[in-house]
Amino acid sequence: MIFKKKERKHNNLKAKYDQILLEQVDHARLDYLQAQDSETALVDARVNGHMVQAQTALKKARFSYLYKEAKRRRTTANGPKLFHPEEK
């Protein structure tokens, strides 16, 4: 009882923000995959898609940043939520 460690709010707060980060990573990845598919469709249609390519690059950069941040924080998903390419 005397030497028992107290539970800190920091752990709960970190877990909360880690969960938010994982949700953002998942959402950013799905956005990136969708943008990549759209870019492929427009390039195949021979449409001038510089804006689409720029948006795809932006979404890729956002996903990469969020993924690296989650990796740096050593967060883990509690289930198989991340990386579902078949869901759109």
TrEMBL record:
Domain of life: Bacteria
The name this protein goes by in its record: YaaL family protein
InterPro entries found in the cross-reference section: DUF2508
Pfam families recorded: DUF2508
